Amino acid sequence: MHALLVEDDDRMSLALGTALAQRGHTVRRVGRAMDALRYVREAQFVLLDLGLPDLDGLELLRRLRTVCDAPLIVVTARCEERDIVQGLRAGADDYVVKPFRMNELMARIDTVRRRTGAPSSHAHGEGPPVRAGDVEIDIAGRAVRVDGTDVRLTRREFDVLAFLAARPDQVHSREEILDRIWGDAFLAASRSLDVHVAGIRAKTGRADLVRTVRGFGYQLGSPRPGSER
């Protein structure tokens, strides 16, 4: 696999590049946002530091997501909850805070790569679109429409919604969703799932599209027009 490593620290770049190469990946390292935008289309996955000299990393993440759908993991020293939430909402598939254990990061890379685009396999990617009120979820086509209007979700947001839509009558535990979508049930201690559910609700304007089962998990809801409040 070909990795794009966006990191301006030489020592960190050397350590990450060596670890990736030892696992059979080829690596292009860049230290500036403009170079990341130049080379991202050739990448099969991306590691992104947020502390870049020419552009804020979160803004770069948003720009990358407009041109590239490759798996992307933020690797940064920014550890505030606000930064983590913003990174996930902007389209990161995972968020790792420095300092980290190299083996853990490599495992997270493997998990993200393995699970990226997996909902179509969870739901077999077949059959007609699922309807929930005025929301249409096309699992095979990876598209969402609200009252006939296309809504753009991040890949992870769509993954969560498609997983729920594939089994609309079932309530799914947080651990099950995290295991099937992220490949790690222990992420239940993080806010990743909550952030993505909030993103689905906000972008579709249907607050009850994803129903919370308090203390357990989530289920696909049946939203009514005007339920955004």
UniProtKB/TrEMBL annotation:
Chain ranges of the OmpR/PhoB-type domain: 127-222
Annotated region of DNA binding: 127-222
An individual GO BP term: regulation of DNA-templated transcription
Pfam families for this protein: Response_reg, Trans_reg_C
Keyword set includes Transcription: yes
Entry-linked InterPro entries: CheY-like_superfamily, OmpR/PhoB-type_DNA-bd, Sig_transdc_resp-reg_C-effctor, Sig_transdc_resp-reg_receiver, WalR-like, WH-like_DNA-bd_sf
Modified residues (4-aspartylphosphate): D49
GO molecular function, one term: transcription cis-regulatory region binding
Transmembrane segment boundaries: none
Cited CDD domains: trans_reg_C
GO cellular component: cytosol; protein-DNA complex
Domain Response regulatory positions: 2-113
Protein name per its UniProtKB record: Response regulator transcription factor
Organism the protein comes from: Streptomyces luteolifulvus
